[in-house]
């Protein structure tokens, strides 16, 4: 079963999308902010991350940056669902994600999710010396701690 991590600060949208994707056979984990989602990602190893850009705390742009800088997460496909103007979404994603505007039809979302999870590479640990994360102070941990320090 493919794992999806859904990150959005709108609880109603999260509940509806989670129920919809679960009914289509996906294992969906949800978070309402980027920081808690990022903290769980290494253990979860999602096949796809679906995120909004506008969220309190760590927004979607910071989440994308932290993922791309992490040896475990840099190849995880991301679908950005946002109601922001298209030029803002494109600028924020810089080619690092597939973009969809809110509101998006369930059929369009499902088609994109199916395509991205089919194309997803198997999640494996990096080889030693090939960008592996050293010890408990991983790049992810550093990104999370840096963001938490700035947010405080």
Structural commentary:
This protein has 152 residues and is an alpha/beta fold. It has helices at residues 11-23, 34-44, 60-68, 86-93, 106-119, 139-151; strands at 3-7, 27-31, 48-51, 78-82, 98-101. Strands 2-1-3-4-5 form a 5-stranded parallel β-sheet, with helices on both faces. Helix 1 (11-23) links the parallel strand 1 (3-7) and strand 2 (27-31). Helix 2 packs antiparallel against helix 6. Mean pLDDT is 75; it is low at 124-152.
List keywords for this structure.
disordered C terminus; 6 helices; 5-stranded parallel β-sheet; globular; 152 residues
Order of helices and strands: EHEHEHEHEHH
What percent of residues adopt helix (DSSP H or I)? 40-55%
Which spans of ≥5 residues are poorly predicted at pLDDT below 50? Answer: 124-152
Shape: globular
Question: How would a crystallographer describe the biggest sheet?
Answer: 5 strands, parallel
Q: Could you give the order of strands across the largest sheet?
A: 2-1-3-4-5
Task: Output the structural class.
Answer: alpha/beta
Radius of gyration, taken over Cα atoms and rounded to an integer in Å: 15 Å
Number of strands: 5
């Amino acid at each position: 079963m493919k794992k999806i991590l859904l990150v959005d600060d709108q609880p109603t949208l999260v509940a509806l999308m989670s129920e919809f994707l679960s009914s289509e056979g996906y294992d969906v984990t949800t978070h309402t902010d980027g920081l808690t989602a990022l903290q769980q990602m290494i253990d979860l190893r999602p096949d796809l991350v679906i995120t909004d850009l506008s969220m309190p705390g760590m927004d979607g742009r910071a989440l994308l940056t932290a993922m791309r800088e992490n040896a475990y997460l840099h190849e995880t496909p991301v679908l950005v669902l946002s109601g922001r103007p298209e030029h803002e979404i494109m600028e924020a994603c810089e080619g690092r994600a597939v973009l969809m505007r809110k509101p998006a039809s369930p059929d369009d979302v499902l088609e994109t999710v199916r395509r991205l999870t089919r194309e997803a590479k198997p999640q494996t640990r990096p080889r030693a010396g090939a960008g592996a994360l050293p010890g408990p102070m991983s790049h992810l941990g550093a990104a999370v701690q840096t963001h938490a320090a700035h947010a405080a």
